[in-house]
Amino acid sequence: MKNSSPTPDFNMLRALEVFMAVSETRQVTVAAQTLGMTQSAASQHLKKLEQGLGVSLFSRASRPLELTHAGEVLQRRAFRILNEVEDLKLDLRRLQSSTLPVLRIGLLASIATSLTPGLYDLVEQEFQVPELTLSAGLATDHQTALNGRKIDIAVTSDPQFDVSDYQVVPVLDEPFLLVLPESYEGPEDDIGEISKRLKLVRFSTDAPAGRRTDQHLQRCRVDLSRSMEADRASMVVAGVITGKCFAILTPTLLIDAVAEGMALKIRSLPFAGFKRSVLVIARSGELGDIPERVAASCAAMLRHQFETRFPDLPEQVTYHC
Question: Which UniProt keywords are listed (predicted)?
C-alpha cells in the first residue's frame, strides 16, 4: 500500500548539521550564527527534518531547548553519520589529488613526544602533505582507529588484531627490562629476592604490554606480588620512584622517564627475557611507499634516543629499517 504522506524535499545532511549545532548550543539563534545562516533558515531545516522523520526532536516548552528522547537518539546517530561523511569526503579528495591533503598518524603514547618533531619534518618536507594529525594512545586504540578509518598509519606495538588487509612494516624489536628504584640496594640478579623487597607495579591487562608481561611470567613460572597496575608507562614508572616497587618495561616505555631524569636503575631481566615489536601498520595499497619511509624515520629517531638515553645497556635492540 502506497504511503499517502508526502516526503518533505530537503537537504538531509545540512539539516543534520543544523540539528547537531542546535543540540550543542540549545539555542537556534546561536546555532544559526555558528553555521553562517539566518535563524529563519535554521528553523526551516529543523522543521523539515522533524517532518521527514515524523518525530519531535526538541521540547520547545523549555528554555534553553531540551532534546526529546527521539532527539537524543538522533544526536548519537547523527554524530556518527556526519563523521562518516567527512571521512568519505577526505578519501575521495585523496583519490583525486596527486598529494595527500592530510596524513593521520596514531602513535604509542610512550614514544609520541620523541617522534613528533621528526615526523612533522618528514611529512612537511619530504611528503609535502599540507596537514599532519597526530594522536597518542595504546595499541588497542590504534586497532579501533585503523579499523574505523580514523587514522591512516599506526606506529604501534604487537597487533592484537587481524592484519591480513594491512601493510605491516617492522621498525624494531626491543627487550623488556628490569626497572628498579635508584635507592634500591638489594640483589639485582635474583627475581625472588627482589620481590621480597619490592612489589611489582605493572601495566593493566587491558594494555598489550601488560598481557605480554603476564603471559611471560606465567610461562617462566614466576609469581610476583603486586601492589599497583596502570595503563600508561608514566604511571608505572611513578610507582617505581616511590622506592617501594619495581617494573618490567621496554626502552620505548622508558624514554620519557629517563629524559625527565627520574631516579631509576635499569637492568637486564634476571630470568628468561622476552621482547616486543614496534611496527608501522597502514591499510594496504593506499599510501605508496609512505609507510616504509615513516618506519625508517621512526627507527632512526628511536636508535638515536636509545644511544643517548641508555648508553650502558647491551645491544639488545634489533632494527629492521
Answer: DNA-binding, Transcription, Transcription regulation
Rounded Cα gap, residues 158 and 178, in angstroms: 20
Q: What is the pLDDT along the chain (321 residues), one digit of tens a residue?
A: 344 444 445 688 999 999 999 998 899 999 899 888 999 999 999 999 999 999 999 987 778 889 999 999 999 999 889 888 887 877 776 655 556 788 999 999 999 999 999 999 999 888 888 889 999 988 888 888 998 889 999 999 988 778 888 999 999 999 999 999 999 999 999 999 999 999 999 888 878 888 889 999 999 998 887 778 888 888 999 999 999 999 999 999 999 888 888 889 999 999 999 999 999 999 998 898 999 999 999 999 999 999 998 887 768 899 998
Q: Do domains 99-171+277-319 and 177-273 have the same CATH topology?
A: yes
Does the domain spanning 99-171+277-319 belong to CATH 3.30.360.10?
A: no
- For domain 12-92, give the fold: Arc Repressor Mutant, subunit A (1.10.10)
Write the CA distances from 24 to 28, 51, 83, 84, 217, integer angstroms. 10, 21, 16, 19, 49
For residue 152 the three cell numbers come to 591512516
Half-sphere exposure of 183 (CA within 13 A, CB side): 9
Q: Could you confirm whether domain 177-273 is CATH 3.40.50.150?
A: no
| Grid cell at residue 206 | 587491558
Q: From CA 6, how far away is CA 55, in angstroms rounded? A: 15
Write b or e for each residue in 40-69: b if 16 or more Cβ atoms lie within 10 A of its Cβ, otherwise e: eebbebbebbbeeeeeebbeeeeeebebbe
Q: How far is CA 299 from CA 16, 121, 165, in A?
A: 44, 15, 24
DSSP reduced 3-state for 24:
helix
39-53 helix and 12-25 helix, angle to the nearest 10 degrees: 110
Query: Residue 234 gets which letter from DSSP?
Result: H
Q: In the chain, what are the domain boundaries?
A: 12-92, 99-171+277-319, 177-273
